[in-house]
């Protein structure tokens, strides 16, 4: 598959399938204007204000976020930002809980488990100035708690063109069986088919959610709510098929044997050095791969399900910039944080950010940037009316919210059965029991 790099204009038409309605940026609230260095005109320009920020992501995203912070503080020397962003392999939710426990909960947060922290009173409703900047900010109980940083990312196979050519693979798979046939060809050619960042807990969600969406969530978006009510079980045919397919990737030798010690940020190197032929991940990896080896030729495609359907993570959810309740009650902090958010989503700065992470813009103002062939393939899939867009099991909210403790617990359970090589319905019975226990504990804590 050969594509020429072209300029991508994410207009109303090109991103309609992504539910991103892009139009001219709305006006800020009356009575607040910005001076040349970004500070509000009703605040002294030289008044020093400090606030903390907490974010996460792959290396490319972290660097792009750090660049945004550096650019803002250079333009606004009176505003000091303490960047607390997570940098290790600890799960982001656990990291945020730890920060909250020791009194270091960030003032500005890249929020992922929104319902948990909103119900705990840790984050506040967004200022209208933030909402004026973004096209689609989902609500929780009719309230806005997050401003989406980028649109939902689809996961897919990032593959080495050379490895595919050497193995005799000449076309994308049209069915899941064809995908498995490609894995056999790669394995027979002498290369490990798939690299996997199993050292980082969040990486487990890529494949696990792919199969959960294929066999459960795309066909029944209310599955989580039914599970909480006891109307469905992880031992049902859909979830069992999902985890059987997931497990098969490992037991058939398609995934590198050293997955437990491979970090997410090592997978790009595994790919470009020829130690593995493929990586299942999102478009944020494109820049990281190109930086590792500018001459490396690679492609991207979504993995079809057993019915030949293309199902991807592509529905907006409750993730994005959030402001802590404490910071929102501090007028100076709230004003300074709002200036940063306005700066972050400004056309010049936000264009740099989404280009660095191969992101899908969420602003009302149209953003354009030069996209790679791989990113153009992503957009082609996302704009295809036949593509089915779902959410990952941890992304639902309201009655369909997954118990937040359950996600990482289940990822660790999957590691257990892969290590022991004894996957069975008994593990899925444990998943039911843990879900029910978490729901009960969360209800008691309210």
Q: Overview of this structure, please?
A:
Belongs to the bacterial solute-binding protein 1 family. This protein has 446 residues and is an alpha/beta fold. It has two domains: 203 residues, D-Maltodextrin-Binding Protein, domain 2 (3-Layer(aba) Sandwich), CATH 3.40.190; 215 residues, D-Maltodextrin-Binding Protein, domain 2, CATH 3.40.190.10. The chain has 17 helices and twelve strands. Helix 1 links the parallel strand 2 and strand 3.
Strand content: 5-15%
Mean pLDDT over the full residue set: 89
Give the name of the CATH architecture of the largest domain: 3-Layer(aba) Sandwich
CATH topology of the largest domain: D-Maltodextrin-Binding Protein, domain 2
| Share of helical residues | 40-55%
Termini gap: 53 Å
Overall geometry comes to: globular
What is the CATH homologous superfamily assignment of the largest domain?
Periplasmic binding protein-like II
Number of strands: 12
Using only C-alpha atoms, the radius of gyration works out to 22 Å
Q: Give the strand order, joined by hyphens, for the main sheet.
A: 3-2-4-10
| Helix segment tally | 17
Give the SSE string: EEHEHEHHEHHEHHHHEHEEEHHHEHEHH
Query: What is the C-level CATH assignment of the largest domain?
Result: Alpha Beta
Tell me about the largest β-sheet.
Answer: 4 strands, mixed
Low-confidence stretches: 1-44
The chain-level structural class is alpha/beta
Our count of domains comes out at 2
């Amino acid at each position: 598959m050969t594509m020429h790099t072209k300029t991508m204009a994410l207009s109303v038409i090109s991103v309609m399938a992504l539910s991103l309605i892009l139009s001219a940026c709305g006006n800020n609230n009356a009575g607040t204007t910005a001076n040349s260095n970004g500070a509000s005109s009703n605040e002294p320009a030289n008044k020093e204000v400090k606030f903390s920020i907490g974010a996460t992501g792959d290396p490319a995203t972290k660097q792009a976020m750090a660049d945004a912070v550096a650019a803002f503080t250079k333009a606004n020397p009176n505003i000091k930002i303490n960047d607390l962003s997570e940098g290790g392999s600890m799960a982001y939710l656990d990291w945020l809980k730890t920060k909250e426990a020791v009194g270091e909960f960030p003032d500005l947060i890249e929020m992922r488990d929104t319902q948990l922290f909103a119900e705990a009173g840790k984050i506040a409703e967004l200022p209208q100035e933030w909402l004026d900047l973004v096209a689609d900010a989902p609500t929780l109980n009719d309230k806005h708690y997050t401003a989406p940083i980028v649109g939902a990312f689809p996961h897919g196979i990032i593959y080495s063109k050379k490895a595919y050519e050497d193995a005799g693979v000449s076309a994308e798979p049209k069915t899941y069986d064809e995908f498995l046939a490609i894995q056999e060809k790669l394995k027979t050619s002498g290369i490990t088919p798939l690299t996997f960042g199993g050292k980082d807990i969040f990486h487990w969600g890529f494949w696990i959610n792919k199969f959960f969406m294929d066999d459960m969530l795309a066909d029944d978006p209310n599955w989580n709510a039914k599970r909480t009510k006891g109307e469905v079980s992880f031992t049902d045919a859909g979830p069992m098929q999902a985890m059987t397919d997931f497990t098969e990737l490992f037991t058939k030798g398609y995934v590198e044997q050293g997955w437990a010690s491979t970090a997410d940020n090592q997978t790009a190197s595994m790919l470009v050095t020829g130690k593995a032929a493929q990586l299942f991940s999102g478009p944020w990896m494109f820049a990281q791969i190109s930086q590792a080896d500018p001459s490396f030729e690679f492609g991207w495609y979504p993995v079809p399900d057993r019915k030949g359907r293309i199902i991807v993570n592509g529905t907006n959810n409750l993730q994005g910039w959030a402001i802590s309740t404490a910071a929102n009650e501090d007028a100076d902090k709230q004003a300074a944080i709002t200036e940063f958010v306005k700066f972050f989503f400004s056309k010049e700065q936000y264009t740099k950010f989404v280009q660095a992470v191969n992101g899908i813009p969420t602003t009302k103002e149209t953003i354009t940037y030069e996209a790679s062939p791989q990113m153009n393939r992503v957009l082609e899939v996302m704009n295809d009316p036949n593509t089915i867009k779902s959410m990952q099991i941890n992304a639902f909210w309201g009655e369909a919210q997954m118990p937040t403790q359950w996600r990482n617990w289940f990822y660790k359970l999957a590691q257990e059965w892969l290590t022991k090589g004894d996957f069975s319905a008994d593990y899925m019975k444990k998943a039911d029991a843990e879900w029910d226990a978490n729901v009960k504990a969360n209800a008691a804590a309210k």
